[in-house]
Amino acid sequence: MEYNTEKPLIMHVDLNSAFATIEQQSRPLLRGKPVAVVNRRVKNTSIITASYEAKALGVKVGMKFIEAVRLAPGLIAVESDPAKYRYVYRKLMSILNSYSPNVVMKSIDEGIIDFHNIPNLRPLVDIGHEIKKRLRDEVGCAMRCNVGIGPNRFLAKTAAGLHKPDGLDIIDATNLRAVYETMRLTDLTGIASHLERRLNAVNIFTPIQFLDTDVVSLQKVVFKSIVGRQWYERLRGYEVDDRTSDTKTIGRQYVLENRNLTRFEIAARLHHLCESVGYRLRSQDKVARGVYIHVRTIDRQYWHACKMCQMPFYSDKTINLIAQQLFLNAPDRIQEIGIRCYEISDDNNPQMSLFSDSIECDQQLISAIDFINQRFGDRTVHSADTLNLSEFMKQKISFGSTRYL
Amino acid sequence: MNDEIFLNEQITVIAVFGKGLNPCRPMKFRRTNGREINITEIGLRHPSAQGKRMIHIFDVTDGSADYRIELDAERLTWRLTREADHGI
Lengths: 405, 88
Hints:
A: Alpha-Beta Plaits, Dna Ligase, domain 1, 13 strands, 38% helix, B: mainly beta, globular
């Protein structure tokens, strides 16, 4: 198969070190300084985003703040501020939506514009520069983004990563090979260390060798599935990633703020997570049939338990009841707890049950509580045992999903 | 670590309401101790809904410290909620 010679019409826009840049935008005195965004104001917290100044000193995402300070003395830790990031996300989305109806936000800091079937299309390079300018005008002068243009999503994202920060690059059939020559396998989006080992095992050590491997070998030997063919096409610029996935699980996890909490106190935190997950479930008009809880201990042991029910549910009370039953068997010395609802489906008037009266009462109560919380703010009404927990258990933003933004 | 101080102080603000992308621009505010702060730059303005109540949050600086001031759009009151000087 030849490389895709179609005109590149996919644009990938990626905010540079998004959370740190937004903090530097909102607090001008942080500009030009090494900044790390963390989820908690404690020394053993992990870094979720580092500014370019911090990255230049060796600070990496995921590093403990206490270790990072050794590398970058003067590193300023800033607690993440989800409301601010949501605002910039919406601004970015509104800018991207003004160019095409086909926009997909892949995460809180990156979006894809598909310019297929857009009449009177201007050169995409001009549009890319305009997006950069509009971001500076409409959000703030410190905002920068990478723009990548390619014939498919994979190459557009790869192009966006070529010249950070504030780059604008195009990858098409003419320079595709030259770009791969400058990269390592793990520079390719989707190739992490375990896939690299798998490729290395069949003597593929560079993106060029990966590109030159025939489709049969990739499908039958390397990946042993259709994934091999998808990689073959993806690397050549053909679109294979234009698909949306359904919600399979809805969950939340929490690293305990203190290692000396009693079982009762941890159960209250689990209850708080159940309320949060229940609200997310209902906000998506979904019901679940299963609850899965996990615990990670201080000794890095992982414990989990799950339960499936016959009837679907969506109330905080039911989720908490199942979760607390499962939690009774959890080990001690807990560091992290998490809960997920699974077997998710649409809430489309489930079959009447023999106990429909009590279900009807529950539904009305839940609707009333959700209404009050929407009117007066999150957690205006909540269970008594989770009182004051919001101080520790603040909602944070995950990078992967834009579902709850 | 972060050197932000969290406050909840009612302040008096002089703001200009104009047009364009940022129609409300606070220019100067006076704290309860009488100190006046001249705003040299608005870093970011973002809305934050507390239920149906809208709070407009302005992250601003006077060149020597960063401040967060909040306009309650329902009550039309301003509060100073954060201050950070980053050791300058």
